[in-house]
Amino acid sequence: MRDFRPGDALRSLILAVFLVGSMVLAVSSAAFAHAGLMSAEPEDGALLQSAPGELSLSFSEPVAALRLTLVRPDGTSVDLPPRMKTGSHIRAPLEERLGRGTHALVWRVVSADGHPVTGSLSFSVEAASPTPDLPPARDLLVLMLVWGARVLVYIALIFGVGGAAGCYLVGTTRPDSRRFLHLTLLAGLLALPLAVLAQGLDALGATLSAALNRAVWQAGLGTGFGVAALTFALSFALALASTLRLPHRISTILSGLALMAGGVALASTGHAAAAAPQVLTRPAVALHALSAALWLGALFPLALALRQPEAARRIALSRFSRRIAPLLAVLLTSGAFLAAVQFGTLPALWQTDYGRVLLIKLALVLILFLVAADNRWRLTQPALKGDAPALRTLSRRLGFEIALGILVLCTVAVWRFTPPPRVEQAMAAEPIALHATGGMIMADIAVAPGRQGPVRVSALLMTIDYGPVDPQGVTFRFSRAQGDAEPIEAEAMPPGDGSWSASAALPASGPWDLQIIVHSRDGTCDRIDTEFRLKP
């Protein structure tokens, strides 16, 4: 069997693109939710007796509004001017009085991690009508462009910037190594404008036909990814400069600065970088990326070093074997910390798209580790002694590791389209707040969490003129709005804070009717009726 050759990396990339492209399409049916919609006014599915004066949206983390579109019952639409009430709360005053029927609000925002988020909700005024047709949430060609450009940027960072530093890690600067680095880094620089374009198209929900639209490029640069793209460009340029025929010390400094700039670029955007506490997560992202870049980036220079004379080959193998262990320790420690921050609970590892992507990545990395361990403990010593079969096997193994590394990067790029479990958990834990009024009594009500399953319901009772209420007992009665099941009743207890609370198991998402029966001490009853919607 032949030794590893530079062309193998290109073939590995092509194979990886076809294998992982299907993953992008598989998760594209999920909502692009990285900041999650926590509440809306009106609520999704609400039936209003009169037209609202404004619409409002509250998210799980700070966002920037890109576009709010109101679709009328007749299918016509109008863009609403969004106004930020707080960092995570958007309001849109309505300049026209909404007519009778069902309206839809399509919203597009960019979350703190720099990723566009889109969604929609509907509500009816006076009476429901057929929900109007909504514009497509995303274009699959744009989706693939987002993923493909991101993969090329990652490859340039890991194998270009990491490879430039890896040359000094293994002690080789062969001309064929420089050619590979130049091609990789130039491909990364060309991919950056494509990545900005794809970001802008995705942010505005536009198609490729809008590629020359100035607003698209402004959106791409203004979502937070713009700063990251400029920092990536600086990183790639410094790495290119380090491969020129400069004094060794200057080249080493330039490659180190390129690595640092690449780490800063990754730490400035993305899921993990936006997670709290950012004082820890951002450095962890940078360390995780830089350790991966030094490890995987050194593989190509090392493969070329194995074809050098014995003295140079021994130096490269010895240096790589001696220095790789600390890098892997940093890689594993930072990765474990970031996973703990993003997941929170172990079941999220297999119950969410984000977790399933991580499992695929971990499986690939485990194979990488096993191959690397076998190389280190079984093949390195014979190769150092000049054993020809061991050298051939080690060379082929390095090519296989590079192919696996490319496949890992293709998998990591899929995370761009999957919500982190921490966001889903925050959305699920958010309580539903209600206010309802009866004949003589009104209540401030909280249902927590606001999703199907076990919930805790509490009600602070007061008279309609805000006086105290001292009932003998309180009963909560839950029934499906469709009336397809028996009501669920729960006797409330006063926990001592002036409210009445009870637990209940609500088995289905969607609309529910809640009736609060207040038993007075004189034997009479007052009733308060309201409705709410549970998330899945």
Automatic annotation (TrEMBL):
The CopC domain, residue ranges: 34-125
Record's keyword annotation contains Oxidoreductase: no
Annotated keywords: Cell membrane, Copper, Membrane, Metal-binding, Signal, Transmembrane, Transmembrane helix
GO terms of biological process kind: copper ion transport; response to copper ion
One of the record's GO molecular function terms: copper ion binding
Pfam families per UniProt: CopC, CopD
Compartmental location: Cell membrane
Membrane topology: Multi-pass membrane protein
GO cellular component entries: periplasmic space; plasma membrane
Keyword Glycoprotein carried by entry: no
Domain Copper resistance protein D: 316-415
Transmembrane segments: 12-33, 151-171, 183-201, 221-241, 253-273, 285-306, 327-350, 356-377, 398-417
Record-given protein name: Copper resistance protein CopC
Biological source species: Aureimonas ureilytica
